[in-house]
Amino acid sequence: MSDYTTTTPEWAVQGNAAVMSGVEELGNINPALASGKFKPVRRTVLSEDEFVDGVSRGDRVILSRAITLIESNNPKHFGKAQRVLQRLLPKTGRALRIGITGVPGAGKSTLIEAFGNMLCDEGHKIAVLAVDPTSSITKGSILGDKTRMGTLSRRPEAFIRPSPAGGTLGGVARKSRETMLMCEAAGYDIILIETVGVGQSETIVRSMVDFFMLVVLTGAGDDLQGIKKGIMELADAIVINKADGDNLVKAKVTRGEYERMVEFIRPATEGWPTHAYLCSAIEKTGLAELWKVIQVFREITTKSGVFYRRRDSQLLDWMQSMIDEHLHNLFFGDAVINGRMPEIKEAVLNGTISPTQAVAELVKMFDVKRAAERQQSVLKNEL
Length: 383
Prior knowledge:
This protein has 16 helices and seven strands. By secondary structure, it is α/β, with parallel strands linked by helices. Strands 3-2-4-1-5-6-7 form a seven-stranded parallel β-sheet, sandwiched between helices. α12 links the parallel β6 and β7 (275-278). α2 crosses α3, α2 (48-56) crosses α4 (75-88) and α15 (335-350) runs antiparallel to α16. It is globular, with a radius of gyration of 26 Å.
């Protein structure tokens, strides 16, 4: 799924058959090739106007391609992606953004599917951005949320976009914010962002959403020790999932223990007390109550102004993070820095210089080079 044109390799089509080294006739393998009916597939490159029009109409295929364009690390795609996003910005900002996190096995995906289906039944359009963990070794990811959310993924009112985390801080895809805006521009009025539930991803997703849910399992006790206090301080609601059958009694006990815990924790949102709620994604219980809680949250925070103050703060945080990322890439992508880095690292390991001194020398080198480049630019313009 890329914005650039794809073609069949030259070796694949020669006359009415395909021939490759070591294989005399592929016509025996593929009858379409042998019959001459095979035609190379060429993918049309969409213009900016086509992207804007398609996303505005809610075309899911074009939306997917627009997100792929946004996520692309190819420098030549960056400008086009930003121009498309800029033109779509007036259509964004009206959706409710909900973040969902929890330890692996807490049933986040099952809960999202049940919750999403309920919202679709009520007439909402749902976009699910499920950030998948990426292997630090192979750089690959499972991207299995469409499998786990089989029913929801088939609904025309829902759009599920699994995105590899790409090894970024906290396991959250670098372009998740732009993806969220694209979905809003396409007419989705509720955005659900599922985190991988590890590292610092919760903090990053908290900085993107309006309402943040922490999904936990029943049977507190030792399980409570596995929940960081910092994560609980981010949550607007704690959802005890799998509260059904023989587990219901334990779930009620767990709810009581979390309720006692949140009394000693500062609320995540000004003017909104965090509480624990029971839910069963399998039996579909507690979902309507949870949705009512979220609606009340939006109403209260909108009236108090907290809702929009948070969004303004998130925009500035987003800008700051992009500046940090740009400067990071500029520094470590510099040829002079890369050339001296091995020598500096060796000196640090040998104890010749301290890490602080190493950083000072590298930054000085970078500043000197940038100053020289600016001077050359000035002289060139004067000529």
